[in-house]
Structure prediction request, 155 residues.
Amino acid sequence: MKKISTPYIASIKILFPVLWFGIVGGAILVLWSNGVAAKDPSALFIPVMMLLGGIFFMRVYAAPLADEVYDCGDHLLVRKDRQEERVPLADIINVNANLAVKPARITLTLARPGRFGAEVSFAPPPQFNLSPFARSGIADELIARINAARTRTRD
Prediction:
């Protein structure tokens, strides 16, 4: 069983949101307590937009990520929110690797929706690469093994 997801998921899903909302919330409190917000309410515009942007980021990019994904040979073991699901490789119909976003993510589209829905997303371990067009080794390996698993299933 080999872990194919990032070990830094806690910082993505917990530490970053706490820091983000703490810093922006602190800025709003400072503006409010100094009386700046009372004199000029438009001073709160940027911090409020940052709060809304943070909520959007957390809901769209961080919250859907699985906590852990393990490669178990013929299936993947996906853990999210204290639940786990076994996803056979033959049940995966698409692998989409998006390395341009941070954190990078791999999204697996499933033939049959499971406990976590029709798509399972996870962040692969960080890889240092200077090329913005680099491919994910984990995604490429998964694609090859999924195709092999589907071929075996049909035979």
Strands lie at 2-3, 68-71, 75-80, 83-88, 92-98, 105-114, 117-122.
